[in-house]
Amino acid sequence: MSNASCYTAGECTWGAATLAPWIPCGLGNAITWLTYARAKGFATGTAPRAGAVVVYGPCCPGHYLYSQYGHCAVVLAVQNQGAFQVREMNFYGDGGGFDRYDTRVSSMEAVLGFIYPPSPPPPPPTPSQPQGRKVSTSQGSLLPAALLLLGGVAMIGYEGYRRPELRHRLGQVSLEQERRVAGALRSGEHRVVGWAKSI
User: Fold this and answer.
1) Which of 56, 78, 117, 182 lies at a CB distance of 3.0 to 4.6 Å from 71, suitable for a disulfide?
2) pTM for the complete prediction?
3) How many Å is the maximal CA-CA distance in the chain?
4) Rg of the Cα trace of the chain?
5) Are 12 and 33 contacting, i.e. CB atoms less than 8 angstroms apart?
6) What does the domain layout of the chain look like in residue ranges?
7) What is the pLDDT of residues 50-71, one digit of tens each?
8) What is d(CA 181, CA 126) in angstroms, rounded to the nearest whole number?
9) Beta bridge partners of 105
């Protein structure tokens, strides 16, 4: 949704805010757009970029193209050697005028600067799959180990159960607990609830 209604219809500011809906209210006449946009947290600079708003100062002795109120337009494309294509309203040239758009190639003459559109927000984080930690055995090999919850007792998963040396490094496991893990693994009645910590 654009904030064009904050500006006088038919003027260059209204035209630019219509084409660049990210332009906020309250920037005033074109001549003050850079200052107020900066104050509102927008990035500004001196290099043309597609999608930016260019702000011109009053120009030029002998052939006034822009009034004392300045002028603004939206950059469509950047060309060679500082030239850039703009779409604008209320510019009397190339078929434009009050309440009419025109498209033309502009030079850097009378350019005060550019207001850049805000960066898009970063995408939401994607849920990641659990990354199994590697657990060392007494032989120095590494293997993933899932924790199983059986009757409230967290046990090392199948890989650890098959290796008595790993069981014993994790702490003594009772014979009853071993039987419960073995039975659950055989029957498929178990669920992963976390990942083993490295030891």
Assistant:
1) 56
2) 0.61
3) 100
4) 33
5) no
6) 4-115, 134-195
7) 999 999 999 876 666 788 999 9
8) 33
9) 85
* Cis peptide bond prior to 60, omega within 30° of 0: yes
List pLDDT tens digits, range 4-14: 999 999 999 99
- H or E stretch at 15: helix 12-19
Helices (H) and strands (E) in the chain, counts: 5, 11
- As a whole number of angstroms, the distance between CA 115 and CA 65 comes to 21
- Where does 79-166 show beta strands of DSSP type E? 84-89, 101-106, 111-115, 134-136, 142-144, 146-150, 153-156
37: amino acid identity, one letter:
A
Place of tokens 């609830």: 193
Contact 42, 16 (CB under 8 A): no
CATH number of 4-115: 3.90.1720.10
Handedness of CA 179, 180, 184, 190 (dihedral sign): negative
* CA neighbor of 148 nearest in space, from 139, 138, 159: 159
